[in-house]
Design goal:
alpha+beta; 4 strands
């Protein structure tokens, strides 16, 4: 199961399309610069659910130790300092162990019939359970 980090940002009024383009390019480069990154996706919130976030970043690595290696990588630190700090008026970040979709049982197909609110509630419960399990694990940094 990958270790997934999700970050939601709400930007200050001065953040424009040029800033978002630079951020997107820097995030794309980050995925190539830091070997522990399994996948990295990002983009402006679509507003489809009337959320309060402007931008979403999802990063998958293998372990919590890999997440800390990414967090401490000079490229990541520089990206955050230059393109996020002092630009975000609000942020929400969480990490959890994500399910591998290829391991879902056939009965999990029922989720296709759920409403967005039901899916969101299931995701919240799963994220909380994953976070509880993660917090119960010993630190895997040597």
């Amino acid at each position: 199961m990958p270790f997934r980090s999700v970050a939601l940002y709400r930007w200050d009024d001065h953040v424009d399309d040029d800033h978002l383009s630079r951020l997107g390019a820097a995030l794309d480069e980050l995925a190539a610069q830091v070997p522990v990154v399994r996948s990295l996706s990002h983009g402006s919130d679509t507003g489809a659910m009337g959320g309060s976030s402007d931008y979403v970043v999802v990063i998958d690595v293998d372990t919590a130790a890999d997440w800390r290696a990414l967090r401490d990588h000079p490229s990541y630190i520089l990206l955050v300092e230059e393109l996020i700090t002092n630009h975000a008026v609000e942020q929400s970040v969480g990490q959890f162990r994500a399910s591998d979709p290829s391991t879902l049982a056939p009965e999990d197909a029922e989720v296709r019939d759920l409403t967005d609110d039901e899916l969101l509630e299931r995701a919240r419960r799963a994220a909380q359970a994953s976070m509880d399990a993660l917090m119960a694990e010993p630190d895997d940094v040597g």
